[in-house]
Amino acid sequence: MTTEPRPLQITPRLELRTTAARLTARASHAAALAALTDDAALGHHGQRSTVLRTLGGTFHGFYQPGIARWLRVTVAVAFRGLSWSGDGVTVALSITDGTNTVLASDARMPEVLGGTATLYPGGTSPTRMQSLRTYAALVDVTQLASTLEVTSVWRLTWVVTVGATTVCEGITAEELPRLVIDDAAPAGVLTNLALPLAPILAGPASFRRLQQSLAWAAGHVLHTYHALTPGEADPHLTTSTSWAPFGGDADDAAARRWTLRAWRARGSSAAARWRVRYRLTGLSAGQKGYIRLKSGVGTYTLTLTDVSGAWVDSDLATAALDASATTDTLTFEGKVDAGTLEVSARTVWGAAI
Amino acid sequence: MSTTIERYIHLPTADATERLRADEPLGAGVLQTLASNGTVLCREGSLRTLWESPGTEVWSAIPGDDPALFPWDDTASDGVFVAFAGRFRVRLYGETSTPPKLILHARGRAPTGDELGVVLWQMPAPGYPSDAVGAFAEARTSSTTIDDVVASLDLDLSKLGAFAVEPVDERGALIEVAVYVGAWCTSDDTAAKALLSSAVLYLDKPS
To answer: How far apart are CA A60 and CA A227, in angstroms?
Structure first.
């Protein structure tokens, strides 16, 4: 295994005419192509988990591990009103792959996210935004991968506790780019790919690796399109036996429409995956709940079968988004055979092509 | 000059048709395809959804009807929508050396004869939004039925911040932006409320 730093967070500019037919191939062309490939594969991860402003509760998000090493988590804390009694916010992050779990108390979890460190507001004025303070911590995905299965989708569970005079203004966990190139990783090309006067090689450690790294990037550098978690205390819910908007996700009796930009690099649609965390209550064995996602391309239905009354993760579902227009719009609706369907989190993210 | 055809072209890997297997000629077309693919992946990789919020009802006006004076210390109970959306890593748009455009795509309606306004602030770091160090864009709607309301801000490179990643074995500095979102209603009347709904922040291609 060989690694080298990738300190420059820029995309090299490589004119297509540089390597036009009949022009002389130069070592610098290969070096630039290697840097471009590295930036495509290592520099643009886009998954996240988001918790909105809260006075406390349990929230969730879904994350598909790839080559990113770091999740940067920022927690924003502020005064709730004009007086402060010295309290703060605690955040406990646990992560599961569905079978194994890394608890907030695990030594690999940053202290800020361990559930025991109190995060206090800052600033000099006891007002909301003047007092806002953010805490940042890095979660090492590769360390967690010794416990969690990297081929599974992980669920991030955030337990937020808030003091009487403070508020959590939000939590964001987002992937960071890789800052090193590792030739043992699934993608990444060492920049000494071609040195002046050296032969051009086709082996796995040379030009062939360029192509494989770009193909890998196209399939594994994923973006979160939608990550909403109303939480377990205030979930979206429906008792309708025909398709209807969820309570908490509707305005003027219509399902909310979430507008976003789909990944536009391969045709008129973009592949996506989605998963929800749900609870079905008041249903008998064999009865089901249903949730459907509508995009500009189609309608995708997820059947929910666990009627135990406990919060559970749905199966992983697929969808496609409209990449031919400037934006696409997502709406969610649900129904049940009987009883109540509650949804405490849903995440839609890009899928491998 | 062209750097990409703006579409990813899949080249076969790890089979008998692989273009870069041993003893194959290294054609100009293959290298151009690789370069084009890399560039389009970097461009698209620069763009993503950052945040979403269900919104809320709003009914309070803001000082001077000027979003530069938006009351960021207020809360929903004061009749405005105030959100610190977060600190987000930003990459320049592909090889163009230009920051992406920040879009707030929300939906909403206003009471008859009034407006729903939304404002979007870029700051280099968390702090009370100020045009001394930040920049903003606004949008309004007077529609009385739910309609799109979209604020668009070309991120100002000079008003982006940075943060350090400092583990011993993998370190560097990355660009970030702190984003604030606000909404108000010109009615200034609890009996005449506007609705802000389905607010989504995302990065789009620069203008």
So the answer is: 9
DSSP 3-state of A62: strand
> What's the rounded Cα separation, in Å, for the pair A65 and A47?
9
Per-residue model confidence as pLDDT tens digits over A39-80: 999 999 999 999 999 999 999 999 999 889 999 999 999 998
Burial, A155: exposed, middle or buried (Cβ in 10 Å; 0-12, 13-18, 19+)?
buried
Q: What is the nearest CA distance from A287 to chain B, expressed in angstroms?
A: 30
What's the helix, strand, coil split of chain B in %, to 5?
15, 40, 45
Token pair 């979930």 in the structure block, residue: A235
Option in B13, B32, B173 nearest A16 (CB):
B32
Structure tokens at A175: 């992937």
Of residues A100 and A186, which shows the higher confidence score? Answer: A100
**In angstroms, rounded to a whole number, what is the distance separating the alpha carbons of residues B116 and B60?**
10
Q: What is the identity of the amino acid at B30?
A: V
- The ipTM value here is 0.96
Q: Is B133 on the interface with A (CB under 8 A)?
A: no
Q: What per-residue confidence (pLDDT) applies to A205?
A: 67
**Among residues 137-196 of chain B, which lie with CB inside 8 Å of chain A?**
145-146, 148, 163, 165, 167, 169-175, 180, 195
State pTM to two decimals: 0.96
B40 at interface of A, judged by CB pairs closer than 8 A: yes
Q: Is B41 on the interface with A (CB under 8 A)?
A: yes
Contacts of A102 (CB under 8 A, 6+ apart): A94, A95, A96, A108, A109, A144, A147, A148
Using a CB–CB cutoff of 8 Å, tell me whether B25 touches chain A. Answer: no
Nearest-angstrom CA–CA distance, B100 and B51: 16
* Interior/surface letters A180-215, b for 16+ CB within 10 angstroms, e for the rest: bbbeebebbbbbebbeeeeeeebeeebbbbbbbbbb
Percent of chain A with pLDDT over 70: 97
Q: Which of B10, B11, B49 to mutate to test the interface with A (most CBs of A within 10 A)?
A: B49
* Chain A residues within 8 A of B7 when measuring between CB atoms: 265-267
The answer to whether the CB of A211 falls within 8 A of the CB of A311 is: no
Q: Are A350 and A62 in contact (CB under 8 A)?
A: no
A14 vs B contacts (CB less than 8 Å): 3, 35, 38-39, 95
Buried b (16+ CB within 10 A) or exposed e, B134-168: bbbbbbbbebeebebbbbebbbeeebbbebebeee
Contact present, A275 and A224 (Cβ < 8 Å)? no
Do A45 and A66 touch, CB atoms closer than 8 A?
Answer: yes
> Torsion angle, CA of A299/A303/A304/A307, rounded to 10 degrees?
140
Task: Supply A97's token pair.
Answer: 């792959």
Q: Give CA–CA dist A319/A341, Å, rounded.
A: 21
Residue B181, CA distances (Å) to A334, B86, B125, B143 in order: 30, 10, 14, 20
pLDDT, tens digit (0-9, with 9 covering 90-100), for A194-206: 777 777 777 666 7
For residues B26-43, give the mean pLDDT.
92
Whole-angstrom distance, CA of residue A318 vs CA of residue B151: 31
Query: What order of strands is seen across the sheet that includes strand A133-140?
Result: A48-51, A166-175, A70-79, A133-140
